Write a sequence for this structure.
């Protein structure tokens, strides 16, 4: 500002120029045969189906799901969540609640977010619930491997 572009030492590049965006489109996947792995859990005596998300530390639900499980009291959350795309997920709050899995009850922290989202099961709950990721992803692992020792010939 205040000087001529041709003598400016800080020349503009194409990267510095803002582009005008006239339309933004989003694609919402509605196919019920999604490749995601679904895990049913019972939260406050209500069954909720979560999608396994090993890319997230936290387990999250949207406000609608939170209301379905009885809207347990929320406390403020210091959590700042980012989507895979880099944008922030607005957090409403967090709560601790009873989670049932395999005839056991756990007291776990749940993050509630704004927007319409699938319930996502993050790494902290996966660890606390002692879920076997190999079994969930690959199915039953055979006890006897077909791998045999190979001898090295000199």
């Amino acid at each position: 500002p205040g000087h001529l572009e041709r003598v400016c030492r800080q020349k503009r590049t194409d990267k510095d120029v803002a582009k005008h965006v006239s339309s933004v489109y989003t694609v919402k996947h509605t196919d019920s045969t999604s490749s995601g792995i679904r895990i049913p859990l019972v939260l406050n005596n209500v069954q909720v189906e979560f999608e396994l998300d090993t890319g997230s530390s936290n387990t999250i639900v949207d406000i609608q799901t939170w209301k379905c499980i009885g809207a347990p009291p929320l406390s403020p959350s210091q959590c700042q969540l980012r989507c895979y795309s880099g944008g922030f997920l607005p957090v409403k709050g967090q709560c601790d609640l009873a989670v049932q899995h395999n005839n056991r009850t756990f007291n776990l922290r749940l993050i509630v977010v704004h927007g319409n989202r699938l319930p996502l099961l993050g790494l902290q709950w996966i660890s606390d619930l002692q879920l076997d990721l190999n079994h969930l992803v690959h199915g039953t692992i055979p006890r006897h491997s077909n791998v045999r020792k190979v001898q090295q010939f000199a």
